Amino acid sequence: MTEAGTAASSAATTLPEPVRQRVLTLAAQALGQLPATDVPAPLRRFASFAPAKRAKLSASVLGPILETDEHFRRLTAFQVRREHAELGDAVAEGIPVPMADPVEVAALAYLLRPDEWELRIAAAAQLPAETPRADDEAINRLSDQLDQARTETRQVRERLREQVNELKAENVTLRRKLNEARQRITGLQSDLEQRTTEAETADERVDAARNEVERELRRLRARITELEAVEHAARRTAGQERELASTRTRLLLDTVLEAASGLRRELALPPGGDLRPADTVAGTEPEAAPVGRTAPEDDPALFDELLALPQVHLIIDGYNVTKTAWPTSPLHSQRQRLVTALGALVAQRRIEVTVVFDGAELSGPVQLNPPRGVRVRFSPAGVIADEVIRQLVRAEPPGRPIVVVSTDREVAESVGKLGARSLSATSLISRIARA
Length: 435
Fold this sequence. Notes:
This protein is mostly helical. It contains 15 helices and 5 strands. The protein has helices spanning about 5-15, 15-30, 50-55, 60-70, 70-85, 85-90, 100-110, 115-125, 135-265, 300-305, 320-325, 330-350, 385-395, 410-415, 425-435; strands at about 315, 350-355, 375-380, 400-405, 420-425. The protein has a 5-stranded parallel sheet with strand order 3-2-1-4-5, with helices on both faces. α2 crosses α3, α5 (about 70-85) crosses α6 (about 85-90) and α7 packs antiparallel against α8 (about 115-125). The protein is elongated, with a radius of gyration of 59 Å. About 20% of the residues are buried. The model is unreliable at about 1-15, about 130-135 and about 270-295 (pLDDT under 50). It comes from Kribbella yunnanensis. Keywords: Coiled coil. This is NYN domain-containing protein.
């Protein structure tokens, strides 16, 4: 080796401090860009630090690893060359760059290792020092620490190499056992597949039989349910028809009996068929007062006569009456005043009273306390109160006296065709006011 080469090699062995600091800075920056698998174990804890902190804390570990780990140095050099493409390419290809910083060129040459890279470092070493040299004692202490770190690094590497050899031997043993286990598993899988095929065939036959039985059971259950529904509907219909027929018959019988009793009182018939002594006295007998069916509909006397009929049912068009009597009051107040007044009328006459309100007038749940004996109904959605009144009239047996209070002419005509008597709202209002 020439004298110049010897000097360059010696200079490369111990980097000038500015070059060493620049090498550590470039390597620390590249360390954060490398994949975790390419970073040596001692440096992995520094990889996530900030660049400045990483360069400061990892300097004592990073320098020795760059000298001893050729693979890591090459990965670092590749990353540094990517970050400093123009100058890095020139240094790697040996092209002189006169205007470049010699320290920067020497640091890149140390990492990239082009031909005669030692000369670049030697050139940087000949530059005049910008700062005073450190004390020899500090330099020796740092050198001792560096040697100690290198020794520890070699020991760690040897221990890791031994562990790797042990793991390789264990891996060979595990592979052999794995192959033996795979052979046993292959035999067991063949036996299992055969048995599984036989079991699946048997399961298919069982499932087919089960499905057939379940289909038959569902058909029979559906038939039983259908028959039970038909029987239940027939029983309910028959029971309702019997109850309704019994109610209508009893009501009609009570009406006939009370009508006969009222007719006896009205005609003043004697209790027996025998002639009484007073009957032999001559005189002119008074004529019976006509029943008020020819009186005006708003005549209070006619209203009282109709309420005196036996088993009479009084059906009232609620809002037709309340809006005539109290047009300025709120609807809830109108309803309560009407049913309260009808409660007093029921207490006096012992009659059946039903009040029908139009459900379309409602804006929410109804709060109403009807007195005893007053039935209150609201027409359902989509049905007007007039139709509910007609349904109530149709539900009564023929022959029962029914009085409908409504000023609506259409309602009066329709209930008249059904056999009911209609009165105007003013007749009821007058009767309530008189009471």
